[in-house]
Amino acid sequence: MSPVTVSRALAQLAAEGLVVTRPGAGAFRAHPRTTTPAPAGDTSWQEVALSADASTDRVPRSVDASGVVVSLAAPPPGVIEFTGGYLHPSLQPEQALAAALSRAARRPGAWGRPPLEGLVELREWFARGIGGAVSAAEVLIAAGGQSALTIALRALATPGAPVLVESPTYPGMLAIARAAGLRPVPVPVDADGVRPELLADAFRATGARVFICQPLFQNPTGAVLAPERRGEVLRIAREAGAFVVEDDFVRRLVHEDAGALPRPLAAEDADGVVVHVGSLTKATSPSFRVCALAGRGPVLERLRAIQVVDTFFVPRPLQEAALELVGSPAWPRHLRSISAALRTRRDTMTSALRLNLPELALPHIPSGGYHLWLRLPEGMSEPALTAAALRAGVAITPGRPYFSAEPPAGHLRLSFAAVAGAGEIAEGVRRLRTAYDEVLRGSGAETVRP
Predict the structure, then answer these.
(1) Are 292 and 126 within 8 A, CB to CB?
(2) Taking Cα atoms as reference points, which of 286, 207, 279 lies closest to residue 240?
(3) What pTM does this model have?
(4) pLDDT, mean over the chain
(5) DSSP code per residue over 159-187
(6) How many angstroms separate the CA atoms of 205 and 216, rounded?
(7) For 264-281, b where at least 16 C-beta lie within 10 A, e where not — what string?
(8) Among 199, 143, 197, 150, CA closest to 170
(9) What is the pLDDT of residues 241-259, one digit of tens each?
(10) What residues of the chain score a pLDDT lower than 50?
(11) Is the peptide bond before 398 cis (omega within 30 degrees of 0)?
């Protein structure tokens, strides 16, 4: 084996206290630890302390990360991952990232303190991606989309306030809102995105001042906000005196058959209604947490102040590496590569589902993003199917966490980006078929294929 492998193995053993390394002498077996474990304390008092601010006129704050953990946690060995929210390592631009980090480390001042708002050149790059309607001075660099969305909600809504969210929507968004003591209010989404008439009704009924949406390849439905609805959404929000938080999270995960993409909503907004979030993470690596937070008017100063208080700034080496990456010839090649790969994976999963699980309805096939949204037959239990699937060797995401209120039906979200390739997709769907039949047998129903 290589010296690098040996070095890493010794470092792991040393971290676990099994060996001791001595420079110039070698590695030696460590003496067994004989420490006596400390007596367990009584932490029951914390239940009272953590709930002490709840009252009849205040929304109790809860922090539930379960919906987010599903897409972050690695499944057990041998289990096919249909839950992942990031590209499989084979799709990540590892060589380009390594080269960018290496070049960035050698830049003059690369390890110094960056401007609090972010490097000007990186802010200019993100501003151009929004369509030229936003200047670099109106862009802040933040540490990933989740952090940017948290900053936006803290800036725009006070604890106890309602915030309008798409239904269904990304569970991480609901977790952010609830952790901040906000009340998520659902606005239904169809094949053309959020329904403007229901959005207007929700603003009138709640007095909300924030609407959070994903107009492009919405998570989980994959819907794209229709052209005739885009202006309506902005007009309705403007008349309500409200902000629209645009989570443009997968613009760079477009499939090669998608055609021209609509511009971000922020590109059509002259009045500072839209607070825009765009990220590099989804198209690169889960650890490459660089994103942009853009706003216009007085809200920009509040966004900036909250970010500085929370995180100071994004590490300069990471920002320098982002500049090196997006300015290299490898970047457009990588985007073309994942565009083709995601289309192939989407088509593979779609075909496998139609062949092996026609009982699951697939109302919309997206032309961007990394997942499919399926509706279960009436009476099929989400928890039972999720558990049976794991026993069969495939991890799936139930639909319930994507709804802030009671869901209209059972759903599943299946990701095709985090698996190794087409063969694993086909095998995962085959295992899901096995799980589906197990649940049917357990319920006493017969397996009848359409």
Answers:
(1) yes
(2) 207
(3) 0.84
(4) 90
(5) TT-EEEEEES--HHHHHHHHHTT-EEEEE
(6) 27
(7) bbbbbbeebbbbbbbbbb
(8) 150
(9) 999 999 999 999 999 999 8
(10) 56, 448
(11) no
